[in-house]
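Same chain as my last thread, 128 residues:
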Amino acid sequence: MLVQTKRNKRAALKLMQRLLKKYGFVPDKLITDELRSYAAAAGHLGIAKRHERGRWRNNRAENSHQSTRRRETKMQGFKSVGSAQRFLSVHAAAYNTFNVQRHLTSAKTHRAFRASAMQTWREVVAAV
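reply #2:
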């Protein structure tokens, strides 16, 4: 999750460059929302033909960020974008360790997953 103060072409370009550098390849499709700065940034990078934008095309990405949006709404106490970014980066790692899709498992399996996650957490905390 990357947090940015602006939603202009420069910010979109910075975001796309960071993502392309992180993954090391240009994807077959780049799906974003309808913000015009994303189209301008994709055109600047030369991947405009692979860029798709649409109202419902990025639902998968938006739904995966709902939990982050809820946390942002609840907290709203960040003094700066940097502090929000630091919190979300650390929180995402811990959240992924403990997030278990409870509705997909039985109670017995859920308890086993939780015990495993707690053991992992204790090992990580003890190492620090």
